[in-house]
Amino acid sequence: MRGMVRETRLAAEQLVLPLFACPGEGVARAVGSMPGVYQHSVDRLVETAAAAHAAGVRGVMLFGLPEHKDAVGSAAWDDDGIVQQALRALGREVPGLVKIADLCFCEYTNHGHCGVLTGPANPADPAAGGDVEVDNDATLANLELQAVSLAGAGADVIAPSDMMDGRIGAVRAALDAAGKAAVPILSYACKFASGFYGPFREAAESAPSSGDRRGYQMDPANGREAMREAALDVEEGADLLMVKPALPYLDVLAALRRRWDLPLAAYHVSGEYAMLKAAADRGWLDYDRVLMESLIAIRRAGADLIVTYGAVDAARLLAGGWRE
Ligand SMILES: [Zn+2]
Question: What pTM value is reported for the model?
Answer without folding.
Answer: 0.93
